[in-house]
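Hey everyone, long-time lurker, first post.

I ran two proteins through the pipeline my lab uses and got sequence/structure pairs for each. Pasting them in order. The first:
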Amino acid sequence: MAIAQLDQTTAPHVLLADVAAALAAEGDIVRKCMHVLDHVTRATGAGECSLWLVTPQGLVVAARAGTAATPAAELAPLLESGDVEQGPLVVRRLVAGGRRLGALVLRIEGGVPADVVTAFSAIAHMLAPALAWAEQSRAFVAEADQRARQLDEERRLIHQVVDSLPVSLYVVDRDYRITVWNRKREAGSQGVSREQALGKTLFEILHRAPAEKLRRELDEVFRTGRMQQFNMETRATGEARTYRITKIPMQAAEGEPFSHIITIGEDVTELTATSERIERTEQLAALGQLATGAMAEVASPLQSIAEAAETLTQSLDELAREGATVPDHATDAARTTVREAARCRGIVGTLLEFAHAGDGERAVFEVGTVIEQALALLRPLPVFAPLATQVFFDPDVPKVQASPAQLRQVVMALLQNAAEAMDAKGTLTIRARSGTDPREAVIVEVIDEGRGIPRSELRHIFEPFYTTKGPGRGTGLGLSICHSIIARHGGRIEVDSAVGAGSTFRILLPGAPIP
């Protein structure tokens, strides 16, 4: 077979120029290498021109042109000795920056001419940096893709965290434009979707709040860098709710001006109610101490006043029977003194009961028992006679461990209040049912159809001496005593009411321990 020669059209400089152009062209490095291998094969009449790469799995062929195929087992030992020119085979190692990338292999049966070897060596020198650059580019692209994926995952995680928070949250920039709007802000009948909010100014979205007030609050946070926090009440959802609003300044880096404000709205209605209950409990405890001291200081003088007034009344009556002239106003004053002294003694006695009620003798029983007893005692009273009553007992209500007398006292007080609020008309409902929390396993509700209680008064009804009744119709201690008794039994008492729609007083007690 004739030895291959490069003619004028495929002279070394022409071949090298074509290879350089192919490597410089746009496209994937594998396709460019394949083009080079095809070009060399056609120009030299080679039986094989192949590209081999060093990989973690060993030496593998990446591209091949021609009909022959050099096996990897034959090529690997040849590379250990460096570049090879052995009979029909020319092997040029591909090295870039001291790093072995692979090898370029040329096989021409009958031998490889010197000018072809020279051109082939030059092609290997051109191909090595192109392969290294492609590898670096791929690594860079892969790293960039990985980093982009990480950033996307972090961004998604942050969005999920923000959306999972049980608070409403939004962020505005210095132009008052919304940059973050979590899913909680979308909830409810007053919610606004994220798509509608992002990019808009806060004043375009929050129509219920005065724009100038919002602007002043935001400007103050931007100016001072201090967090703002306040409570607000709203009926936007149809019921009165209390929200804690927190505005937090944010800066991109320390020392830079504040660029954004994070606003968090947290529903603290239940927390506020709990705080008020704790405050009432503390007030009641203080009242108990006051009552104890009051008895020691007031009971004895009251007794003396009552006895003296009684003696005076009897003396005036005796003088009148003996024919003496006794002014009517003197007799009225003496009897008024007796009556009011008795009333004061009754108030002090109630205070003592409130302060020293103790736990009483406790027993395990069904709440239905004390409810029936309370109703039996109250039904004969005139205030109950016109009312319809209905009683519902769930069959699975747990028993309670409590003082029957004290629990009956509480139920009777609630029933009397309900009857008085109904003005002798309507239906009074008593319901006993099971709760879902073991600490509130037994629920007793007294439901009336009365006048209802204004919201402004609801927070005060368990306070000592607070009453909505007229003068002389109550001391304002009834509900305070009920609250104290239920608290001593490890429970709580709450109320739902609306003007014109009646009230529901709810007793929640723990169930009796299971033997």
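...and the second, right after it:
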Amino acid sequence: MARNDEFIFALRNANPIDQVMSSYVQLKRTGRNYVCSCPFHSEKTPSCNVFMDTQSFYCFGCGAGGDVITFVMKIENLTFMEAVRELAQRAGMEVPDNNRDQDNGLAQRKQRIYEMNRIAANFYYTCLVKGDNKAGLKYFYDRKLTPQTIKKYGLGFAPDSWYSLSDLLRSKGFSDKEIADAWLGGLSSKSDKAYDMFRNRVMFPIVDLRGNIIGFGGRVLDDSKPKYLNTSATPVFDKGNNLFSMNFAKNSPLKRIILCEGYMDVIAVNQAGFENVVATLGTAITSGQARLISHYADEVIISYDSDAAGQNATRKAIQHFADVGVDTRILRMEGAKDPDEFIKKFGADRFRMLIDGSDDAMLFMLDRCENDIDISSPAGRTKLLNRLAEVLSGIQNPLELEVYTSRTAKKYDFPYDVLKAHVDNLSNKKRLSQNNKEWKNITTQTTLVRDDINPDAVKHKKEARAEETIISYLLRRSGEAASIAQDAPPDIFVTDFNRRVYSALLDKMSSSDNFSISLLADEFSVDEMGKITGMDARERELSITPQVFRDCIAVLRNSRSSNASSDGSISDDDLRNLFNSKKG
């Protein structure tokens, strides 16, 4: 059944892109449009643009782009129809039946995994509270968890059995391959029969921001290894882009997130009355997780263990949060090794005081500089000076640099001028090194730049630029699609990707009175949509006149008639000069 394009058009109108994106990023108005730091890569200078006239976005830094549907698909890792349903629910709209039929194989596969995870979570919870083996329940009660907390997090117990869950899932109509696909089971090398992946472990369901159970963490009750077993990558789960308990933390009115190391720390802190607490999933925090936190918080408080591994993880986390513009503070605990133990010993009020008195990240980094150094010896003081200057040279804000340099000089009794000169010297060296690196990247770029989306453009750069200009010309004149198609039929296009885009645009414009780029979102991937949006975004400052349009057609026809590949290139400056020459 054909998709209801009128519904997609109405859906986009009901979800203005600036309103949807502002739920994830901070938009800054620039004239009619907006800019923001891109939520899809780390950057310090905003390069993501939101265009209100076309209801689209494009990042000049990483190439991400598209419409509101594409944005939700990319930021929430959804299929096209999942994003449509998400936006429809947001706008209070009902998805028509002919749109529901558009689910592809991936969407159905993901829905099957969600259902298996739901069944598994209920199975584990039932085994915990009603099963004959009370070891799991004893573990949680020994950790002082209340029945309400156990139910809130859906905690469970995986029995010491090879087939209990697998047999249950098979009885529900799921195949052995599907059970393995969800990472709830492994496949026997001899029989291809699925066996239970989690056995004799207390279970922690991992829930995404929409309430779907996407995976599990399991902890042993003895000394066997591995101590923790987490769901591996599946179509619905990527541990580097999800956080435990973020489904609760996102609802906190505070613009502050407490970051802990493990499941039990999070649950203990949450039970003590702090909803805004999350944990990574068995690894050090990633840039993706930092970006996710930045959507909901302006400040993060890191509460990692005080051992060497915890301190190293803290240092890396500070850098990730700095890259996404989130202020970082460090929780220092004395008398307890983690938040769970601290709350049990001293109570929730003392923990709240600890949070309020947490140190900022720069003080943490500076204080660490004296570790393993005899600061009373000349050699030790020299080493300390070098470490301190290295940390201080990373501060970009001049006022902050002055404050921290002055404080550090006083604390360690260094002459201010000496420390400041050393910091300035390192800052200049870093700046020069960065400039040299950027220049090297520019000068070492070859003409054979890889283009995974439109690989033909490598050999046909001039033709590809002409094609992109024609596509941009068409995007601004959808009402003239028929006449444009007569002058520039798709068969004159040289690169396959641009021809496919151009043909799809002509088809949509001819069949819909309300054309929008959204109508392409189910035919092209999110990366391809970024490429399409980028064609228009890059040409916005140029006036594409009818004469320039005809010149681009001539480029393609000449290429076709000569039946030869063009190794020449046309730069943006050349194209801009061409456009300017045709004005007037």
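Reply from user beta_strand_b:
Welcome! Quick read of the second one: The radius of gyration is 28 Å. The longest helix spans residues 416-443.
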